[in-house]
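Subject: for your reference before the review

Hello V.,

The reviewers asked for a structural picture of the protein, and I figured it would be easier to keep everything in one thread rather than splitting it across files. Below is the amino acid sequence we used in the manuscript, unchanged from the supplementary table.
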Amino acid sequence: MLKVDGITKYYGDFLAVDHLSFEVKPGEIFGLLGVNGAGKTTTFRMIMGLLEPSSGNITLNGKKIDYSVTDEIGFLTEERSLLTKLTVLEQCIYYGTLKGMTKEKIISRLKELLARFEISEYIDKPIKQLSKGNQQKVQFITSIINEPKLLILDEPFSGLDPFNVELFKAEIKRMSEAGSMIIFSSHRMEHVELFCKKLVIMLHGRPVIEGYLHDIKEQYRKKNIFIRADINPEDLKQIEGVVSVDVRPDEMEVKIRDNEVIQKVFEVVSKKAKNVLKFVVEEPSLNEIFVEKVGEEYDK
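And here is what came back from the structure prediction:
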């Protein structure tokens, strides 16, 4: 288990991370989110042992993270960090050797991963000749070639088309099912919702939202109702507890204060609408919660 216990990090007088705590168990995919400058990168560097916390502790399976355990960690950075003059094979041998792997094991694992990501023909090709998407695949492969127990993914889908996003998603799920602890960071909230049951959203170095995604949505209380019917939007706007009505080409999205308003909206639709084809209540998206909650903290 990865345990982050009350860590803070100062750069001089600047507080970059402020009493952050969370745990990631084997097989879990944990979301660490935040706006730019929130403290995520500093947190990643402390987890990997590249920076020492000013206070607090980080342990992996009960041990302080140092060079004795870094071979068990993989990290996919948001920035491209490949040596582009090397071939794919040379790059992966370099990274695998740094992780304590033998050349034979590296080549065997590399061929397996290249086949899985459908780029086997690029094994001897210089990285600078690959497309951005295929470079991202190679960078991902270098981060998982050692089959890490802890994997940190920072914007893993950057530069990928929808088909290749699916390849990455399948590999992330495969690793989770095999017992890897995964920390997932992305500005695309829909991707976070696909993977993460637990998460922390940071702002100015401290957590502003944390816990299980289901509980976070329950506590938020606001719901969205999608209606496809012949009805005057003004009739819905007048209902107490309706926050807004967004009229779209084929339906209306009605944002409501809480569950108690659902019945009020349903009664109005039943009485005043014609040709009702859709009445669906959905929880708010994580993106919606993120924008509102982070925005509230900015305004304080």
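For the response letter, the relevant points are probably these. The first helix runs from residue 40 to 47. The two ends are 35 Å apart (CA to CA).

Happy to draft the paragraph if you're swamped.

O.
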